[in-house]
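Hey, I'm writing a tutorial for new members on how sequence and structure tokens pair up, and I'd like a real worked example in the thread rather than a made-up one. If someone can provide the structure for the chain below, I'll link this post from the tutorial.
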Amino acid sequence: MCRNSANKALRFILVLFFPILLPILGPPGAALAGKDLVIGEIDPLSGHLAQHGLEIHQGILYAVAEVNSRGGLAGRQIRLISRDDQSRPEVAINQAQDLIFREHVIGLVGGYVDSLVGPVSELALRYRVPFVASASLQSGLTARKNPYFFRVSCLKGIVQPLCGFLGQTYKAKKVAVLHVATPGATEFAASLKSCLEQTGQKVAVQEKFRPGWPDFSVLLLKVKQAGIDVLISGGFYADNLILVRQIKERPLGLQAFIAPWGLAYPSFIREVGPGADGLFGTCAWNPGITQPGTEQMSREFVAGFRQQFGEEPNTTAMHGYTSARAMLAAIEAVLQSGAKPTGETISKALASLDLKLPMERLAFDAQGDPKYYHHVVVQIQQQKMVVVYPPDRATGQVDFSLARR
């Protein structure tokens, strides 16, 4: 107990006094004269968010390796320095400051969930270092103008297709939303509720739970007693594994179970087996699910990723790859213009970026949000992901009998 208290006190002192040490360590970008171009990554590589943090990390590693294998940018190699925020905001702050002032990175990438991304975005603004977040949804993070913060995902790209799918396909009388108590997931639940109620679908149950919640039996009892037709989970991978298994143990009479995060993964399907059939998820990308016109690009990514890591990439890895590609493309544009890659020049290049990538056409609006980020809705059929919405990207139809729980 004493050791834990001492560690907490030390972390508090570091957070409080680290800015005082910054002038000693030197200003951001002080190492620009070196040959390598140094960028930093902050991700939850340990702690309760480690699984998705490691997936983002792999996507970033692949993007950097891809560029370096082609000779780098303007003949200069990219050096990536990766740091673990341990799934804790105070650690993310310390790691970001260290990357900026000790390692002199010219840009930051990575990040999973807004409680970790938000503090780093504030440091990006304060110290004028561009930051491209791999996974961020909370609208408040881009409500205030921050010319140094960009992200490759946004909440409306999930809520709009999910709301459209439910309104056009199910028109459920009663919906339940169970969500993890993170800023992005809480806002997701509120935004989805508002959208669904505009289409005449009632959200009769809306409950939050802590990250790492081990037992959903009480919440599922509320769902059953309310006579819910469609249950939507705003939880992550581990949460959805527990939810699906507990629903299987005690059927609720649901017409559908939908989870926008952590379900449309090959690893989830393998873990649950035949019990995954009929479930719905959403994704921005997966092997075989790519933006029209990017099929060859997507296949090359999958093949290269498989060769480097010995496994299939998933949608979270693609988010990491996309954020790194954005940063690298902006740095390249600066170098080609003859300017020095500074926080200001790279941020301006990011603001004018327009890339065609497997996950999305990537261009940022004035707030730093992606203009073209959209999920598709998939149903697991015969342990495969089948796109069922929107109609112009569908690869199959909803199997209603398979969806009932």
